[in-house]
Amino acid sequence: MNTDSRITPVLDLFAGPGGWSQALRARGLREVGIEIDPVVCATRAAVGHATIRADVAAYPTAPLRGKITGLIGSPPCQTFSAAGLRAGTTDLPLCHQALDDLAQGHDTRDTLREACTDSRSLLVVEPLRYCLDLRPDWIALEEVPAVKPVFEHTARLLAEAGYSTWTGVLNAADFGLAQTRRRAILIASRIHPALPPQPTHADGGTPADLFGDSLPAWVSMAQALGLEPGVTVATRGNRKTTGGNKFHASRPSWALTEKARSWVLHSRRDSPNWIAAHGARTNRHGDQPAPSITGEAHRWHWQRDDVYQRPLGITEAAALQGFPATYPWAGSRTKQFQQIGNAVPPPLATAVLTTLVPAASEVAA
After folding, report:
1. Helical axes 346-354 vs 19-26, angle rounded to 10°
2. 3-class secondary-structure state, position 266
3. Which domain holds residue 44?
4. I need a surface site. Which of 123, 134, 140, 212 has the fewest CB within 10 A?
């Protein structure tokens, strides 16, 4: 196999709108993604990312043998996410069974899928199926922290197949994203030792050491979006009467999910009238990070002095997720926020890739 991924492409399972793709492109690497959602495929086409529209779980691996160098996978997280019903937690034993069966050459996915509380739970085993069949030089997987035990199990099986592996949980804020998005990561390589990326930022920053090195502070929402000082965000819109959290934009957001569409931006102080009308919120001190963005971000709104102003913009949510303002999102506003919230943040993807493959400029040097 040609091990230069500038010639031999990287395979991206559950490719999404292009978080990994953006990071690969920035490093001069070719990629082909497998994605089933037609709207997401439309976004990828608009950006120019090569895509096979197919079900990852049903797609055959044989046509890809000898044709890829690296493999990336970000299985759907809804069944394991804290923002969902967490049916995946109940299905974890079945996921572990599927991993062991695949490693022993037995494909029991169909039978185990029928036994799952949520059939999507078993998608977390698909990367191992592709890895064992295709034997890529390197592997990078990303999921919500609840999937870490599955990644650890996958890593053990990959180690038995000759890979160096590392698993852990990374905070995207440590790599320059204005969001404290924590994600389980699996890194594996048949060429180099698998090592975690080194943080580029730190909570509050770090002073210079004996070698003169220091880390800047986490990027705040205000910095990322150009907000004026004193802005506070609440995680429920003007149509909600209870619940939600409140945090200052002087820190990173929490992980964006699709629920970010319900966020409201307002001044720091809750007035008695606001509390009477909408209920008290769980406050978050200004020196703490703000929340994650999810696909619910289409419910977020801007608000000042308790007065509704306008919805959170697509470009603003995209910026908090690390995408450029000009990214051509396809679909309805709700669908666009879902894509943003489900995407891998490009800065986090870039950090992971730096440990696995050199950039084109580094190869040329």
Report:
1. 50
2. strand
3. 10-201+349-364
4. 212
pLDDT at residue number 276:
44
More confident residue, 90 or 83: 90
Query: Do 148 and 243 lie in a common domain?
Result: no
Number of domains in the chain: 2
Least confident span in 60-69, 190-199, 226-235: 226-235
**130 and 55 in a common domain:** yes
Give yes or no: residues 171 and 246 share one domain: no
182-189 vs 164-171, strand pairing mode: antiparallel
C-alpha 233/C-alpha 227 separation (Å) is 11
Check if the beta carbon of residue 301 is closer than 8 Å to that of residue 263: yes
Do 25 and 2 meet the contact criterion of CB atoms below 8 Å apart?
A: no
5-51 pLDDT per residue, tens: 445 699 999 999 999 999 999 999 999 999 999 999 999 999 999 99
Q: Looking at the structure, tell me whether residues 32 and 180 fall in a common domain.
A: yes
